[in-house]
Known about the structure:
The chain has helices spanning 2-11, 22-33, 58-74, 93-97, 122-128, 144-154, and strands spanning 41-46, 80-91, 100-101, 106-115, 158-163, 171-178. Strands 1-2-4-6-5-3 form a 6-stranded mixed β-sheet. Helix content is 30%, strand content 21%. The chain has a single domain (2-178), classed as Heat Shock Protein 90, CATH 3.30.565.10. Mean pLDDT is 79; it is low at 1-12 and 183-207. A hairpin with a 7-residue loop joins β5 (158-163) and β6. By secondary structure, it is α+β, with helices and mostly antiparallel strands.
Amino acid sequence: MFTQQLHQLSRSGQVKPNPSALAVAMAKEEARVKPLGGPNLRFEKDLPAGLPAVAIEAGPLQTVLGHLMENAVEASPQGGVVRVAARAVELSESDARSYLGKAGGGGHLLVTVTDTGTGIKPEVRRRLFAEPFFTTKVRHRGLGLAIAYRVLCAHRGGIQIDAVPPPGTGIQVRVVLPLAAHPPAAAGTLTGHAASAGNISATAVGG
C-alpha cells in the first residue's frame, strides 16, 4: 500500500486535462471502496444526469475520488452514511480563493463527499495539510490527502474540508474541478451557485 501511494504521489503532479465523466469514475471507485466499509455503512449518491465533463483524465479523477471516499469509510467504523453529491457551479474569484489549491473563477463541477463519522479534533485538522505524512490511522502513512491535493493543484482544482455543522457529525469535503473546454456532445450543461464558505481550515483525515 505504501509503495503504491508513493508511486501515485510521484505521478500526481502530471497534468492530464483530457475530459472525463464524473459518474463513470465514481462508479468504478464506489465498486472498489464499498467493500471496505462494514455492514452498517450505507452509500448515497446525488449525481444528476448530464453533469458536464471535467478537465481531468479519468485516472487522476479516480485517484482523488478514491482517497476521499476511503477517508470517509475509515472515519465511520461504526457505520453510518457516506454521501457523494455533484453539481455544476460558477465560481467567482472570491469563491475560488476560499479553496485550498489552484482553483480560479469560472465554471466548475462541485463534488461533495460527506460522512457521518466522529469527525476530527481541531488540533489534528491543523496538521493535515502542513504535514503530508501526518495521519491518525494505524494502517496508513498519511499520503492519501497529499496525493489528492497535488492532483487537484495540477489540474487547477481546489478543496475545502470542514466539520459537519452541529447537530450533525462527521466531515464534509468539497472539491471543485474545472469544466472541460470541449465536453462530449452528450454532456448537458447545468448551472448553480458555489457553496458558501468561510476561510478554509484543514479538516480531513490523512489517507
